[in-house]
Automatic annotation (TrEMBL), chain A:
TM stretches of this protein: none
Biased composition (Basic and acidic residues): 1-16
Top-level taxon of origin: Eukaryota
Species, as recorded: Daucus carota subsp. sativus (Carrot)
Protein name listed in UniProt: Vacuolar fusion protein MON1 homolog
From TrEMBL, chain B:
Membrane-crossing residue ranges in chain numbering: none
Localization of this protein: Endomembrane system
Gene Ontology cellular-component terms listed: cytoplasm; endomembrane system
Protein name: Ras-related protein RHN1
UniProt function note: Protein transport. Probably involved in vesicular traffic.
Family of the protein in this entry: Belongs to the small GTPase superfamily. Rab family.
Keywords: GTP-binding, Lipoprotein, Membrane, Nucleotide-binding, Prenylation, Protein transport, Transport
UniProt topology in membrane: Lipid-anchor
Superkingdom to which the source organism belongs: Eukaryota
PANTHER family the record matches: PTHR47978
InterPro entries registered for this protein in UniProt: P-loop_NTPase, Small_GTP-bd, Small_GTPase
Amino acid sequence: MSSDDAHSSSSEHDSTDQNPNPSTSIDQSLDAIEGQLTSISLNHRNSPLPEPPIPPPHHGIGDTLPSDAHSQVEEVGAVEKSGSDVEVENSVSRGEGVLWRNSSDVEGEVEGQGSPSSSGYAGGKGTSSSSGVSGSGIEEISGDEVDQGEGGIRSGSFGGSVDSEWVPGKRHVNEDDASVSWRKRKKHFFVLSHSGKPIYSRYGDEHRLAGFSATLQAIISFVENGGDRVKLVRAGKHQVVFLVKGPIYLVCISCTEEPHESLNEQLELLYGQMILILTKSINRCFEKNPKFDMTPLLGGTDAVFSSLIHSYSWNPATFLHAYSCLPLAYPTRQAAGAILQDVAESGVLFAILMCKHKVISLVGAQKASLHPDDMLLLANFVMSSESFRTSESFSPICLPRYNPMAFLYAYVYYLDADTYLMLLTANPDAFYRLKDWRIRIEMVLLKSNVLNEAQRSMLDGGMHVEDLPVDPSPRSGSLSSHLGQPRPPPDSADRCKALLGGPCGLWHFIYRSIYLDQYVSSEFSSPINTPKQQKRLYRAYQKLYTSMHDRELGPHKTQFRRDNNYVLLCWVTQDFELYAAFDPLADKALAIKTCNRVCQWVKDVENEVFLLGASPFSW
Amino acid sequence: MATSARNNLNAKLVLLGDMGAGKSSLVLRFVKGQFLDFQESTIGAAFFSQTLAVSDATVKFEIWDTAGQERYHSLAPMYYRGAAAAIIVYDIASIDSFARAKTWVQELQKQGNPNLVMALAGNKADLEEKRKVTADEARLYAEENGLFFMETSAKTAANVNEIFYEIAKRLPRAQPSQNPAGMVLVDRPAVGSQASACCSRYHFFSYYHSDLNFLILFAK
Ligand SMILES: Nc1nc2c(ncn2[C@@H]2O[C@H](COP(=O)(O)OP(=O)(O)OP(=O)(O)O)[C@@H](O)[C@H]2O)c(=O)[nH]1
Ligand SMILES: [Mg+2]
């Protein structure tokens, strides 16, 4: 057990590390890539001039996609698993990813054994003195935290209950790889075809980045031809992460210091979003014509992608692979669920009622289950497309985890400014039936006051750390008075009164139920109340999550780490994962006890913060 | 308004045309009286309804505002199948959109519904200084292909109500006294489920009466 002293080595690393890869061809590739990247990031003028924009040919999806979803053929083997991927790391900054688990800049306590108790931490193991923070800890990640491109995250909870002024849509369209501003962006996302044609760029106009795309393509195929697949390149403070999906290449170039595993998952989601819009049948267009230009097929979707990428900096669902529910009294959610269940029994595949990013209720037909990532992508698609707000819509969409080859049809209707209903069907002729269903659903929701309750819940927010019950004894019955109503008076007898936030210095937590595929996070409160702090906490959780799910080291059970900003506690059991952030001066034993209480609290209110009893989402 | 019950028509109307031609803007002007300078691109298709009274009937339009984005082209039949009327929209400031309009006309003609009322709308007529397509050229094309033509502006509202009104007037009227056998009670049709409706004997109105839940087959 380590002491509670916060060791704070700087985040510089040995630059003497050898490239761990024994293959000489990889070493050569690495040199080449490093050279390429240097030229990308520094000598931008080297890249060839962009080709003039190609007039969009009329490759309708119709060429390849029958509008009848049922007639589509499963495509086999387009996506390889990444088991044999080779990591190519630049020796200069190698080890950054390792730092998190091995270095001493944090107080690391990583246990392979979980606590057997099902109700919380087994108690205050270890010493409990807190000796503060030494001077040279992780610096403020200045500048990195809030860059103009990514904007601030929302206030309120991670669930995005309060909108910030962030507006989706492409920024900086006039930039290209010759612009200084473009090269200074902290996090780029690119999608290109295997022939090097740009498909999407987060910043700048795709067509103006043709030269840059060609360079990326050259890097990827250079290494691929050697039999290896590039997954990660480090160049200075940049990480370049590649994801190859058949004929589509996705690339993230980032200096945000996020773990590369996270960046990789972000690329996966980006690809999923593309599949949601086009289905994987798009691959056939490339089979017919390797130089196929995909950009026209993504016309008008900038806002969809930019808001997805934005969510990588505020929405925990993007790394937790779980969804969150709008807190509601149990009977209220039941009422919504009952009517949706009726719909699902009448031929609708999925009936989903959501309030912004949060689920009110959702029902799947018979065996159909909805993957949380599909939900995230679907909700993002609907919310970022203003068009859905104008009236009722009936649109083809594809759920990549459900069936990446086929379109479903989504009836989408906004019941009020925040609450929307999505009815998914495989039947392209179902519109009028779904419209009728919607009218019935709307009547039921109005009668049972669900919409008003949802609005109230949006205003009140969910769990506030200040409300953490001080008495750990089991609470009974409905706590609806607790979630949405005046708080109980603070217990002045509590020996661990907080300076800020909740008891014992608890600032925030996320609880993820593994069985339910759902999570609940507490609302932000002081001192996590600026977008910058929220984003920093978000990134800390993201890192913690990654380190807890490290493939090589195997899953960890608990972690306790202290740095300048927080004490972070993580606890993973078979049933749940708890991530909690405390005051950096928080007492360790008390923090552990507090985590126990948080778990108990969540269990006490699970009726309200989770969607229970729906068809199991087993994945 | 001397509308007898038998002249309450439900008419499915579809808007087709290049992206950005102004289909959504026309519909929003017609249905809500609004115009937005930054109208978002439509996803899939949006459904609206609006009722219009013409001299001899009340027409309830069920409007499908389709997406002009290329990826949705192959899905257009899902929306135009069974339509009684279509407005094909182009932007007078874009040659391409006019060319695209012509291909939509061809596609609809191939569907073989001779009674489809087709209108050609040269939209953004307020952008006279950017005009690329002359009214004469478009009118000539429309006449040759059996469409009626109007230049519209969703922005100024010029000719917007008029084009829908003109369609309402041109819709074939139910004449149950002449052909009572043509009236058939069926289940409410789903979108486009009556694809085979182009038989010569019946003019197949895909209208259904939303209150009464029946579909009317009219003799030609
Ligand atoms: N000046 C002017 N602008 C118009 C007019 N009609 C539409 N616009 C503008 O043209 C742009 C595109 O209009 P939309 O109505 O979205 O076009 P659309 O045909 O629905 O496009 P898709 O949904 O992508 O197929 C919007 O920014 C409108 O404000 C018009 O009559 N005059
Ligand atoms: Mg539109």
